[in-house]
């Protein structure tokens, strides 16, 4: 297992989602409904639903909203959402993978293509960038659950492959632990970790880049606009990238 490289949130800098809580809730609801529709409506019997419910709780989503999203699936009046993946290049040749849940492929494709085109990027064909990423299971915890040693030990015991810890430096960056494992072992590893560290903030399948690109101030400025635009789309669930932005650049960008 690799050691403690400082964990940068490769999906996007923390805080971007905090701006738009209601939009975030609608995305979480959509994932809960889809998960409940695809399996049992009981989180204990449905690992994907359990992960979606845990993610919603981590964002302080009210219990009523969570139950409503589950009920929507079991009543059969939910829209038919399908999972779609888009791949492309942002400014500076940064590779991006966009995961969406949509009930209208044409609308989502148009919105994603427009976001890339207006922000220095271009949408590629399926498979254009995913060869530069690994499909892995990702379990996320706040730094407050324990130090690097405790989390590393728990991860090894649980059968994880890698841990990246950032112990944070105050309120602006409270820190986090990212625990990586084989995709097929995700729910088993998450279950073992829960016994030691409690409920995770996030349990999901993720795209981890094999090589990361350092984005300078010029690239980062446009890149973050692109990621924000994609994030603002109701259909887009997650944006993954192979970029890293230094703390110095983030401070300059404010």
TrEMBL record:
Composition-biased stretches (Basic residues): 1-14
Annotated TACO1/YebC-like second and third domain residues: 81-242
Keywords, alphabetical: Cytoplasm, DNA-binding, Transcription, Transcription regulation
Highest taxon of source: Bacteria
Pfam family, one: Transcrip_reg
Coiled coil location: none
Location (main, coarse): cytoplasm
InterPro entries: Integrase-like_N (IPR017856), TACO1_YebC-like_2nd/3rd_dom (IPR048300), TACO1_YebC_N (IPR049083), Transcrip_reg_TACO1-like (IPR002876), Transcrip_reg_TACO1-like_dom3 (IPR026564), YebC-like (IPR029072)
Acetylation as UniProt keyword: no
Residue ranges of domain TACO1/YebC-like N-terminal in the record: 5-75
Protein's cellular compartments: Cytoplasm
Location of the region described as Disordered in the Swiss-Prot/TrEMBL record: 1-26
Molecular functions per Gene Ontology: DNA binding
Family statement drawn from the similarity comment of this UniProt entry: Belongs to the TACO1 family.
Protein name per Swiss-Prot or TrEMBL: Probable transcriptional regulatory protein MTR65_10750
Organism: Novosphingobium mangrovi (ex Hu et al. 2023)
């Amino acid at each position: 297992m690799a050691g403690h490289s400082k964990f940068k949130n490769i999906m996007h800098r923390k805080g971007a989602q905090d701006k738009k809580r209601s939009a975030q809730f609608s995305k979480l609801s959509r994932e809960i409904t889809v998960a409940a529709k695809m399996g049992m409506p009981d989180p204990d019997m449905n690992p994907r639903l359990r992960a979606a419910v845990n993610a919603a709780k981590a964002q302080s989503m009210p219990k009523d909203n969570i139950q409503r999203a589950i009920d929507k699936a079991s009543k059969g009046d939910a829209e038919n959402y399908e999972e779609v993946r888009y791949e492309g290049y942002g400014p500076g040749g940064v590779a991006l993978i966009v995961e969406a849940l949509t009930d209208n492929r044409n609308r989502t494709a148009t919105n994603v293509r427009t976001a890339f085109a207006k922000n220095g990027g271009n949408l590629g064909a399926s498979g254009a960038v995913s060869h530069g990423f690994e499909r892995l299971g990702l379990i996320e915890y706040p730094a407050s659950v324990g130090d690097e040693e405790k989390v590393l030990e728990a991860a090894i015991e649980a059968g994880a492959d890698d841990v990246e810890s950032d112990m944070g430096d105050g309120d602006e960056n409270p820190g986090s632990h990212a625990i990586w494992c084989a995709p097929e072992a995700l729910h088993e590893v998450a279950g073992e970790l829960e016994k030691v560290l409690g409920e995770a903030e996030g349990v999901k399948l993720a795209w981890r880049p094999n090589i990361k690109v350092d984005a300078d101030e010029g690239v980062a400025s446009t890149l973050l606009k692109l990621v924000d635009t994609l994030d603002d789309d109701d259909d887009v669930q997650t944006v993954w990238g192979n970029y890293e932005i230094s703390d110095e650049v983030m401070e300059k960008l404010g």
